[in-house]
Design goal:
The chain has about 375 residues and is an alpha/beta fold. The protein has helices at about 30-40, 65-80, 100-105, 120-130, 135-145, 165-175, 195-200, 210-225, 245-250, 280-285, 300-310, 320-325, 325-340, 365-370; strands at about 1-10, 50-60, 80-90, 110-120, 150-160, 180-185, 230-235, 235-240, 255-260, 265, 270-275, 290-295, 315-320, 345-350, 350-355. Bound molecules: iron/sulfur cluster (SF4).
């Protein structure tokens, strides 16, 4: 099994909270597509198993022209073996999902859409500086369903200063009414070097209120569980059969190849990341070169990574997995996890350690206490 990620580093507008790599200038679009195809060809040997998932992320992949996507699919098909059941996700912003574009996307191998809704309310969307309004978010989902896309996930953001508890309930109800089978919900985070961080520093907007965010998160867990969705990763909820195969690969340690500026790759031992610079990325690929850095993960890195990622999932941390890494890792884990079991932030069942409902509020804190510092 293997997974392929393609980073499309362009957006029409910079959302105030975003710290992903992207440019709002589309000048390099065609050269970028050529460069992505060149990287796909150059790195084909890295992918030894058939691809079980392909993920177009960004940035905003939906702003690519259909011809660009066809070019990328041709390069993927030419160089990679693909599983018959492959999941192919395209991240899309509501403003791009016109009826014509959706019809064209249906003719491509794309079988899952990840729509960047964030909120159905104009007030929140304006605060976040999104490029769409609430009505167009709804229309995009309805259009995608009418075009035959059944596997749809949407992103939602909670903890936004403009979002009251009642408004959050309204957003979640709207999602359930639209029969969207998968939701990724993120707490608004004030990342350094973003416009939002600048506004908070200047006092123009309030910082995220942790108590409100925690309340909205717990409310979401209960509401979606009542609706029959499984909370299978800290930010991800879905009905059975609709869980993201691509992200599950990351969480379960399946090797993945990341193509495009800023994209990361992992083969079980080695982690690499491409330089996050569009022009330099394109120029290097034009010369047949890759601009990337790599590091071999130490045993401690692999243990820490396992704990950090698995603790956030429904699969939890299996003691047997940690013992297989070495008895000293298991001893360290058992010693550090004990206080969290005691205070009921972590529960144990048949050798698997999982966060409790309350513990999910402190996932990062618990993971960092379990880490091994070299
Ligand atoms: S559309 Fe997505 S990637 Fe682009 S700026 Fe907004 S949040 Fe970031």
């Amino acid at each position: 099994m293997a997974a392929l990620y393609l980073h499309i580093p362009f957006c029409r507008r910079a959302c105030h909270y975003c710290n992903f790599h992207f440019s709002t200038s589309l000048r390099l679009r065609e050269e970028m597509v050529e460069a992505l195809c060149a990287e796909l060809a150059l790195r084909k040997e890295e992918c030894v198993a058939p691809l079980q998932s392909i993920y177009f992320g960004g940035g905003t992949p939906s702003l690519l022209h259909i011809g660009d996507l066809e070019q990328l699919f041709d390069a993927i098909m030419a160089h990679y073996a693909i599983d018959a059941q492959v999941e192919v996700t395209l991240e899309a912003n509501p403003e791009d999902l016109t009826e014509a574009k959706l019809r064209q996307l249906r003719r491509l191998p794309v079988n899952r859409l990840s729509i960047g809704v964030q909120s159905f309310r104009d007030e929140d969307l304006q605060f976040l500086n999104r490029n769409h309004d609430g009505a167009s978010a709804k229309t995009a989902i309805l259009r995608a369903q009418a075009a035959g896309f059944d596997n749809i996930t949407i992103d939602l953001i909670y903890g936004t200063p403009t979002l009251t508890d009642a408004a959050w309930a309204q957003n979640v109800e709207c999602t359930l009414d639209l029969e969207v089978p998968h939701i990724s919900a993120y707490c608004l985070t004030v990342e350094p070097r973003t416009a939002l961080a600048h506004f908070v520093r200047q006092g123009r907007v309030p910082p995220v209120n942790d108590d409100v965010a925690a309340r909205q998160f717990l409310w979401l867990i209960d509401q979606l569980s009542d609706a029959g969705m499984v909370h299978y990763e800290i930010s991800n909820f879905g009905y059975e059969g609709y869980w993201s195969r691509h992200n599950t690969s990351y969480w379960l340690g399946v090797p993945y190849v990341g193509i495009g500026p800023s994209a990361h790759s992992y083969d079980g031992q080695l982690r690499c990341w491409n330089e996050a610079h569009n022009m330099r990325y394109v120029r290097a690929l034009q010369k047949g070169q890759l601009l990337r850095k790599c590091e071999v993960l130490s045993a401690a890195d692999r243990y820490n990574e396992y704990v950090m990622v698995r603790l956030r999932t429904v699969w939890g941390c299996r003691l047997a997995d940690i013992e297989a890494m070495g008895a000293h890792w298991a001893a360290h884990f058992l010693k550090e996890v004990a206080p969290f079991v005691q205070c009921q932030w972590v529960e144990v069942s048949q050798g698997v350690y999982r966060l409790t409902r309350q513990g999910k509020l402190y996932a990062d804190r618990v993971a960092s206490e379990l880490f091994f510092a070299e």
